[in-house]
What does this fold into?
Amino acid sequence: EVEVHESGGDLVQPGGSLTLSCAASAFSVSTVDVHWLRQPPGKGLEWISSISKSGDIKYSDSVKGRFTISRDDAKNVVYLQLNSLKTEDTAMYYCKKDLGDRGPGTQVTVSS
It folds into this structure.
């Protein structure tokens, strides 16, 4: 059973913005740590951000200051706001909970 489903990916120009959503089923996002990861084409999986069940937030150096993670407990969704996008942000973006599987992912392509 897929526990999370990512959405919101798109083709965007450098400097643009997107908001990704991670909709959870079978668990409440307010009770677990949730992570965003990405995999650029031809490269490995990279952790980029987390929000803990207590609301503590962390970012990788590669996205700090440009991406913002947030959570809507009522909707059971974790968001990732992507600002000031660069071509190197092009990747498949995934979310997962601790000890959980990734969802199918959502593609972000940054290109002029």
